[in-house]
Write a structure and sequence with these properties.
Structural class: alpha+beta
Shape: globular
CATH superfamily of the largest domain: Winged helix-like DNA-binding domain superfamily/Winged helix DNA-binding domain
Order of helices and strands: EEHHEHHEEH
CATH topology of the largest domain: Arc Repressor Mutant, subunit A
Number of strands: 5
Number of domains: 2
Oligomer: single chain
CATH class of the largest domain: Mainly Alpha
Helix content: 40-55%
Low-confidence stretches: 1-15
Mean pLDDT: 86
CATH architecture of the largest domain: Orthogonal Bundle
Length: 140
């Protein structure tokens, strides 16, 4: 372990020398920042769409497969995923340009954990809905 100020960071796994763990309760924690990005409304849906496709998907097709997302939000989310190294972007020099997106090998490693989280949500959603309904019906 490496200590830095008041935080303790575990050393990174081999092959990922820049990774470190910090205190999730600290706003500047790199793990917290990454989890905030991955927990965005559209991120898991786009990772799922790209993972299911298994190949490149054009921008317009991504928008069709992610109902409710605006062009602006789709573009921003894809830029964020690309900046994190989870998605690649390829532009064909046509008129208009054809823009294709695909998961990187790193992005592909996110599919399983997001599937597990989605399975958990689908398994427990009824119970959670019941709790919420009881809370709404019971006086404070």
């Amino acid at each position: 372990m490496v200590t830095g100020g008041n935080q303790i960071h575990k050393t990174a796994p081999r092959g990922n020398a820049r990774a470190r763990r910090g205190d999730l309760f600290t706003p500047a924690c790199p793990t917290r920042k990454l989890l905030d990005r991955l927990g965005g409304k559209w991120t898991s849906m786009l990772v799922k769409v790209l993972g299911d496709a298994g190949t490149e998907v054009r921008f317009a097709e991504l928008q069709r497969r992610a109902p409710g997302i605006s062009r602006k939000m789709l573009a921003q989310t894809l830029r964020d995923l690309e900046a994190d190294g989870l998605v690649t972007r390829r532009v064909e020099p046509t008129v208009p340009p054809a823009v294709h997106y695909a998961l990187t090998p790193l992005g592909t490693t996110l599919v399983g954990p997001l599937d597990t989280l989605r399975d958990w949500a689908e398994t427990h959603m009824g119970t959670i809905d019941d709790h919420r309904q009881r809370l709404v019906r019971s006086p404070a």
